[in-house]
Amino acid sequence: MAVVISDLLNRCTFPEGPLECAVSGGADSVALLVLATHISKEVKAIHVDHGIRENSGEEANLVFQTAQTLGAEFESLTISIENGPNLEARARKARYSVLPKNVLTGHTADDQAETILLALIRGSAWHGLSGIRPSPQRPILNLRRSETEAVCREFKINFFEDPSNESLIYRRNQIRHQVLPLLNSISDRDLVPLLARQAEILRKGADFLNIESRKIDPTKCDELIKAHIAIARESIRNWVWETRKDDHPPDLATIDRILAVASLEVLSTDIGSGWRVERTNRILRLVPPKKT
To answer: Is residue 271 part of a domain?
Structure first.
């Protein structure tokens, strides 16, 4: 496909000033770097080496060479991740812990669609189904993965194809390679733009609920009972998530169990990871796991 950079940039949301880009070496992040150099004269490519893959040194070298070709600065960061459960999630968390706060990432519209479907099967509500929230730090969220690959081809820049992106061990890859293509086939259309539009609608609803939920005290049973159930659920969601500082907010089933406590149906409930919600004198409290 022919690439017109100006057309792509018109759909991007790059901030002004010097730009720092997280560049793994894949097509999305390399295209991010290419487009960034068309926006700003001060661009830095930041590569994070997790030490997980054997060829991670080659990836860093590829990003370094690409940055040189484009006239961008380069910085390499190294982190150590131990093998074990939830490797991808732990690697992502560690990666963001060392990257600058306002670093730009190469999330695309295809990532958005996959994220929404993952949230759907997790039982997420308004916020989860809102997908990846658009921001200047995600400037190419309106572009397609096919377009980022086309940018790399247009500028004759090699990119790294991570073999783990093909492994069906990971749920996101199952969504990418199996579920989304099947849904496209069933609906006889490309669902990525549709999912993005649905996410925008739900995002506005989520923002409204968030504002309204801050007007009540989630620990007071009487206020929760009087509130609309959507607002009560949102208030509980924020209370639990902000208190526990989890990677993900509580799911709907957990929130409704807490509502049952607030409605005086039960005295307490388990909400996972050793945490409980208990009620005394119509006041809810979060009880952390007992220390061993």
So the answer is: yes
Domain co-membership, 161 together with 172: no
User: Cα separations (Å) of 268 from 217, 219, 287?
Assistant: 18, 13, 10
HSE toward the beta carbon, residue 208, CA cutoff 13 A: 8
* Within-domain flag for 208: no
Question: Using alpha carbons only, what angle is made at residue 202 by residues 200 and 208, rounded to the nearest 5 degrees?
Answer: 110
Decide which of 178, 203, 228 is a domain's last residue: 203
Distance between CA atoms of residues 259 and 252, nearest Å:
10
d(CA 124, CA 116): 9
- Cβ atoms < 10 Å from Cβ of 121: 11
CA-closest candidate to residue 131, choices 107, 164, 148, 101: 107
Gyration radius of the chain over CA positions = 22
Same-domain check for residues 176 and 229: no
d(CA 204, CA 38): 32
pLDDT tens for 34-46 read 999 999 999 999 9
Over the stretch 106-158, which tens digit does the pLDDT of each residue have? 999 999 999 999 999 887 888 889 999 999 999 999 999 999 999 999 999 99
Residue 151 belongs to what domain range? 5-104+139-165
